[in-house]
Amino acid sequence: MSEERNPNEEVVLSISDFRKEYGGHAALDGVSLSVKRGEVVAIIGPSGSGKSTLLRSINQLEIPDSGQLTVLGENIDFSKRVSTEQLLKLRRKVGMVFQSFNLFPHMNVLRNVSFPQERVLGRSREEADKVSRSLLERVGLAAKVDTYPQRCSGGQQQRVAIARALALEPEIMLFDEPTSALDPELGLEVLAVMRKLADAGMTMIVVTHEIHFAAEVADRLVVMADGKILEAGLPTEVLAEPKNPRTKKFLSAITDR
Fold first, then answer.
1. CA-CA distance, 189 to 204, in Å (whole number)?
2. Which of 59, 149, 150, 174 is most enclosed, with most CB atoms within 10 A?
3. Are the C-beta atoms of 173 and 197 separated by less than 8 Å?
């Protein structure tokens, strides 16, 4: 965790008793979590533990079977019907970066970042391009504005995806294993951008297999397995002295590889 960062006490996202089943299997089994403004929360755990389902449920790409979600004062109760207006309002506040980059192949880098701003925020092309150029410079891609995605490396494409998400001015960013599709060297490019975002005070929830990143950048480490949160705390404490036997087994498997 950066010494310059100091998350305040304002809770900007609260999950209460999220439950989600697929064919009788509980992908999320009573998950509750709160996140403070400026906090970086890293989530780790074995495959199939519910990490990605949790992020997708926060951003409403998956709708929980039950539970409540509060984002910046807006509450959604999943025991009731969720309106389209509620979903759109929530997605305006929460940006998401996926494992796959999901860029438009027929648009250059600049248009990939500008086009969503025009559609979602109603910005003019000139205004959107100005924002896009600034963000692409921020992620180290100012020279790539006219390049098409297929001519960019995986790391560059993921950085474009981050710039695109930031362009919609979210207050919270979700990252779903953003480096898992990249080789280690390209993954470092993406992690460097994420470190800068964290140091700038962006509230972030990061599902990751990058234990070193979690240890150095996260304010809190959450361990999931079997659709539940096993334990959570300071990364140094959870990694050095895990209390749950399942956590110990998972961390041992990682370090023994």
1. 18
2. 174
3. yes
d(CA 140, CA 134): 10
Helix (H, G, I), strand (E, B) or coil at 129: helix
Domain boundaries, given as residue ranges, for the chain: 11-255
For the four alpha carbons of 10, 204, 192 and 159, in that order, the dihedral sign comes to negative
Q: What is the pLDDT of residues 146-199, one digit of tens each?
A: 999 999 999 999 999 999 999 999 999 999 999 988 988 889 999 999 999 999
> What CATH number is given for 11-255 in this structure?
3.40.50.300
| Parallel/antiparallel/unpaired status of strands 66-71 and 74-77 | antiparallel
Alpha-carbon distance of 175 to 117, in angstroms, equals: 20
- Which residues, 6 or more positions from 209, have their beta carbon under 8 angstroms from its beta carbon? 44, 177, 179, 180
Question: Which residue, chain included where needed, has tokens 């334990």?
Answer: 231
pLDDT per residue over 23-76, tens digit each?
Answer: 989 999 999 999 999 999 999 999 999 999 999 999 989 999 999 999 998 899
User: What are the beta bridge partners of residue 94?
Assistant: 172
Three-state DSSP at 117 gives helix
Contacts of 105 (CB under 8 A, 6+ apart): 148, 149, 150
Q: Check: pTM over 0.85? Answer yes or no.
A: yes
CA distance 17 to 29: 8
Torsion of CA 95, 100, 103, 106, to 10 degrees: -170
